[in-house]
Write a structure and sequence with these properties.
five-stranded mixed beta sheet; 36% helix; single chain; alpha+beta
């Protein structure tokens, strides 16, 4: 048998141990500070270099909402719960919209809403989903829906301080031909510690604490903002894991907006002088404006946010007070567009300054980039001045 010898472990030198120095606390703290500073300035190359086809740090809507609730302020936590409920409702509605033809949801539901419009089964379903989701939060005291003639007052939650206004399915009259549709919502806070009343929702748009819309199209997109954020944020529903993922941060209307106007020109014979004047001006420019009109407010405003231009639904001889509803269509959209650097007016007044007096009050609206909305306001001012001069010249009876 062969033999081998194990290496002899050399004993530690007593002399070396005695000479080893223990670093001071100040030295350790300085080293930790240096490494921390390095870590803060690391460029995080993993996502862009090693996994460029994957988002390794997705900001989901849930994460965005939980950041809202991270503050121990009870108000922000309640708002986060409401936004989460709306996100859940929109996923259910998105699934229903995509399967509407298969499930027979295009058919009429047999009723009409408060505006005399025929309700489709999909309208009723979307409204029920919104109402149930918001009610389950225990944070909402008042709900105003396009589909309900009266306000929904939630009983049994005396601590609730929020009113939510919404159009559960905007543009549904065109859904059978696969036109994009959407949901619009706005959230108000009740400042007075009293029982909920309709007055909690009858506030000007300048009092909104959050607003947004969901676009159901080739992709499902949710655009939202709150008073805690300077800009607006866009989230796209990832069907692979059923979560909204942030795709645009601090969206702004382009500084050099495209020349686009969006209006139902079939009503041009009924328009007033200012509206007709703007379209004439826009189409007679050296580079004429392009006309783009989908017929779904969510789709038309979404395009306006991305490209610029103006979306118009003016008053006319047939609808002297306008057609779109102030509380749950005009106000939330005006809130978002202003945060994106745009403007919204009824021709004479800022939309967000109008005090609503009725749940389903209508209003004309011109909404989009400052260039075009300001031009429209100037035309209305000129028209009004002309009418005042004409009135002054009329002989008194």
């Amino acid at each position: 048998h062969s033999h081998f010898a194990l290496p002899v472990r050399q004993p530690f030198s007593r002399f070396k141990l005695e000479r080893m120095s223990v670093p001071s606390k100040e030295t350790v703290d300085a080293a930790v500070a240096r490494e921390t500073a390095k870590a803060r300035h690391v460029q995080r190359p993993l996502e862009t270099e090693r996994f460029s086809e994957h988002n390794t740090d997705p900001i989901t809507l849930t994460r965005f909402i939980m950041h809202e609730a991270a503050d121990e302020n009870h108000r922000r936590a309640s708002l986060a719960a409401i936004l989460q409920a709306i996100a859940t409702a929109s996923k259910v509605i998105a699934n229903a919209v995509q399967r509407a033809g298969v499930q027979g949801l295009y058919a009429l539901g047999g009723d009409t809403n408060v505006h005399g419009e025929d309700q489709k089964k999909l309208d009723v379903l979307s409204n029920d989903v919104f109402v149930n989701a918001l009610m389950a939060t225990g944070k909402v005291s008042v709900m105003i829906s396009e589909e309900n003639p009266e306000a929904i007052i939630v009983e049994g939650y005396p601590h609730c301080r929020y009113a939510v206004v919404f159009d559960p399915l905007d543009g549904s009259s065109n859904i059978e031909c696969n036109v994009s549709v959407g949901s619009i919502f706005g959230i108000y806070h009740q400042e007075v510690d009293e029982h909920a009343t309709v007055a909690d929702a009858l506030q000007p748009g300048s009092k909104l604490v959050a607003a947004g819309y969901v676009l159901y199209s080739s992709a499902v997109c949710m655009v939202v903002s709150t008073n805690g954020h300077k800009g607006i944020y866009s989230f796209t529903l990832d069907p692979n894991f059923g979560e909204f993922v942030m795709t645009k941060k601090n969206m702004q209307i382009p500084e050099s907006p495209k020349e686009i106007y969006s209006v139902n020109s079939g009503n041009c014979a009924l328009w007033d002088e200012a509206t007709r004047g703007f379209v004439d001006w826009a189409t007679s420019q050296k580079k004429p404006y392009s006309a783009r009109y989908i017929g779904s407010m969510v789709s038309d405003v979404h395009r306006t946010l991305l490209y610029g231009g103006v979306f118009m639904y003016p008053a006319d001889a047939k609808s002297p007070k306008g057609k779109l509803r102030l509380l749950y269509e005009c106000n939330p959209m005006a809130y978002l567009v202003e945060k994106a650097g745009g403007m919204a007016t009824d021709g004479r007044r800022r939309i967000l300054d109008i005090q609503p007096t009725d749940l389903h009050e209508r209003s004309p609206i011109f909404i989009g980039c400052k260039r075009d909305v300001q031009k429209i306001m100037d035309l209305y001012a000129a028209m009004d001045a002309k009418q005042q001069v004409h009135t002054a010249k009329k002989p008194k009876a």
